Amino acid sequence: MNKRTKALDEETYKWILSVMREGFTYHGVDYRANERIATVLILEYNLGLRVGDILNLTVDSFVKDCSRYCLDIYEQKTGKYRNFNVPDEVYQFIRDYTYEHNISPKSKLFLITERAVLKHLKVVCEFLKLTGIGSHSFRKVLINS
User: Fold this and answer.
1) pTM, entire model
2) Which of 6, 73, 114, 132 has its CA 20 to 30 A from that of 122?
């Protein structure tokens, strides 16, 4: 049986990110704010890529083409080549994140596992009493963060 995830509306998207960024207590366990996982989900939401592909990105993955930035990747799951323009706001968000966290251009943006992202998202959704939300939900609608 296929597990179905539902698309996120902007309000739910912001609610999930807000809880991740602030931290919360659930079943007696304190979960600290997690900006890194929130950033992974922001990029997944805005770029429409799978979590695994987001985790493999480096600053050098984004190539300047005249006045805009493009992303050239081979998708991990399908092996398909994708080339698309990255909105300026998203690229600037990535640049700011790498500057704040002292990440070099050749280093991966995130040194975490896909499992860590999925596990934290699951706990946040349980805390918020949201069902049918998975990492794929973040790929279904594109907005600017």
Assistant:
1) 0.90
2) 73
